């Protein structure tokens, strides 16, 4: 399986945990979320070049084969490209760095505690783990992970407002990437307009792996 496909399968697990329905068949995969109607959580991924007239957002990866042919086909079928796009970042684990003294404490929390504190409608899935980030004695942030095959996905990454813009995010991620629980690849996602997150992830050691473009059907 290609790395981009593994990343997408990882993302689908997280999407299920936030109440997205996933519909798969031989030609496409549909993601739907009735409580959040944005194209972030409502899109279709095609498995082939022919465009299926589903009257919904179609998301394509920069890593797919024949991307130019697919884009041309979408334009011919009255689809319009969204200005913003998602960025998938990858860290490839090579050699573990030695960290003399950690500034951070990683505290795993139960699903029930996470749900009560942050999200009432989160679904419990075995592949997800939930964490709080402590900087010395202060809880400064949180995130969750999804693990599948070679990829560990980081989701819900957030620092409290009073701890932002202090390089704590990139410093924590840099330490996290050297933990034993990290797999061959670590994946994290943001959108093209989130310049702070992009800077943070690059500084932590991630590289941009792929871009995810969204096309919407033009309604005459």
From TrEMBL:
Protein keywords: Transferase
Keyword Transferase (UniProt): yes
Matches recorded under Pfam families: Acetyltransf_1 (PF00583)
Span of domain N-acetyltransferase: 89-220
InterPro entries xref list: Acyl_CoA_acyltransferase, GNAT_dom
Gene3D superfamilies: 3.40.630.30
Coiled-coil intervals: none
UniProt GO MF annotations: acyltransferase activity, transferring groups other than amino-acyl groups
SUPFAM superfamilies per UniProt: Acyl-CoA N-acyltransferases (Nat)
Protein name: GNAT family N-acetyltransferase
Organism listed in the record: Clostridium perfringens
Lineage: Bacteria, Bacillati, Bacillota, Clostridia, Eubacteriales
């Amino acid at each position: 399986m290609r790395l981009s496909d593994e990343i997408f399968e990882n993302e689908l697990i997280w999407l299920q945990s936030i109440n997205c329905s996933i519909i798969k068949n031989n030609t496409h995969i549909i993601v739907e979320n009735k409580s959040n109607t944005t194209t972030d959580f409502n899109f279709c991924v095609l498995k082939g070049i022919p465009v299926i007239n589903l009257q919904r957002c179609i998301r394509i990866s920069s890593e797919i084969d024949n991307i130019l042919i697919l884009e041309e086909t979408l334009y011919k079928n009255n689809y319009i490209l969204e200005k913003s796009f998602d960025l998938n970042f990858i860290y490839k684990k090579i050699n573990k760095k030695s960290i003399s003294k950690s500034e951070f404490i990683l505290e795993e929390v139960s699903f029930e505690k996470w749900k009560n504190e942050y999200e009432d409608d989160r679904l419990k899935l075995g592949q997800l783990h939930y964490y709080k980030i402590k900087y010395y004695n202060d809880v400064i942030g949180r995130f969750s992970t999804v693990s599948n095959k070679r990829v560990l996905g980081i989701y819900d990454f957030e620092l409290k407002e009073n701890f932002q813009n202090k390089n704590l995010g990139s410093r924590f991620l840099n330490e996290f990437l050297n933990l034993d629980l990290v797999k061959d690849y670590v994946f994290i996602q943001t959108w093209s307009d989130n310049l702070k997150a992009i800077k943070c992830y690059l500084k932590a050691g991630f590289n941009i792996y792929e871009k995810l473009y969204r096309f919407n059907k033009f309604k005459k």
